[in-house]
Design brief:
The chain has 307 residues and is α+β, with helices and mostly antiparallel strands. Helices cover 27% and strands 23% of the residues. Helix 1 links the parallel strand 2 and strand 3.
Length: 307
């Protein structure tokens, strides 16, 4: 299982900085060294973040039969405890989730206004705000990769991006046994391009920087008030020919209830993910063949729910 040896000191990126070149250089360093960083001054008001937490709690505190009326169809809606297996060696993750996809999609499921009157409006507002932050971040990531700042826009990655807001609830009481540790979220790296995570102050998130080494060394990620936690997904690792790192992470039970919400910013489904010119050379040829973004994500998501 590995050891947890320390609290990780992640880099802090200021999205409001006027020195974009310096910011891009810091992002490059963070993505090659850690695959994780904090994002501050992102422009999402604290009041909105707290309202999303409040509305998320309202939903997850409903009786299970009410939540199951919005049960996951495709990649939209509610999944109960143990429905997901991020690590195939575990029995399933001790968390509930709710997925909200692109706002124009007719596949989204929403609690009734009678039950949760302002829920949909709040979630839509947050979705739009965090999508805007993600797009600003993508321009800096392009610069960090020695590309033009509008590179990802030009190739159509951000035209109708496949972006999901995922609300997460980890119950405080988890079943435990001597034979097996029950995880809030078992060890995994995210599948897509970029994840923007907001967490409450309850600990539990850990990362493993050296995913190919055994035993794994796990480090705690501390909560920083007002900051979003950003991490790189497997798709961006693939796109950058493994220059940028997708990092293993997990959520450990702490005996306390925990809420978070992750925003997965992934490209348009038809966007071709092929080795970026700035990330390959004669001595460092492409490690992966080109693949459509949508095909890659579907393969990964289906594996998560088929165990």
């Amino acid at each position: 299982m590995g050891e947890c040896e320390s609290v990780l000191q992640l880099p802090v990126i200021d999205l409001s900085s006027s020195d974009k070149i310096s910011t891009a250089n810091c992002i490059r360093q963070a993505c090659t060294d850690y695959g994780f960083f904090y994002l501050i001054n992102h422009g999402i008001q604290e009041q909105l973040l707290q309202t999303v937490f409040h509305e998320s709690k309202n939903f997850f505190s409903l009786p299970l039969e009410h939540k199951m009326k919005l049960a996951r169809k495709g990649n939209f809606g509610f999944s109960p405890i143990y429905a997901e297996t991020l690590d195939s060696s575990s029995k399933g993750d001790c968390k509930e989730t709710f997925h909200i996809g692109p706002l124009e999609s007719h596949l989204n499921q929403w609690p009734s206004k009678e039950m949760l009157p302002s829920w949909r409006l709040i979630m839509e507002e947050y979705y739009q705000k965090v999508l805007s932050v993600g797009k600003r971040l993508v321009t800096l990531i392009a610069m960090a990769l020695n590309l033009e700042d509008d590179f990802f826009e030009k190739i159509g990655a951000l035209d109708n991006p496949y972006a999901f807001l995922r609300l997460l609830h980890y119950p405080g009481e988890m079943e435990t046994s001597d034979e097996e540790v029950v995880y809030g979220a078992s060890a995994h790296s995210d599948y897509g391009m970029l994840t923007l995570l907001a967490t409450d102050a309850v600990p539990g998130l850990q990362v493993c920087r050296e995913k190919d080494k055994q035993p794994r060394i796990w480090e705690d990620v501390k909560h920083v008030n007002g900051a979003l936690i950003i991490n790189i997904g497997d798709m961006l690792e693939r796109w950058t020919n493994c220059l940028f790192r997708s990092t293993l992470h997990r959520v450990m039970p702490t005996g306390k209830e925990r809420y978070s919400f992750a925003f997965f910013l992934d490209p348009n489904e038809n966007c071709m993910v092929e080795c970026l010119k700035s990330c390959c050379s004669d001595v460092s040829p492409p490690l992966f063949p080109p693949i459509r973004s949508g095909d890659y994500l579907r393969e990964r998501i289906e594996a998560t729910y088929s165990s």
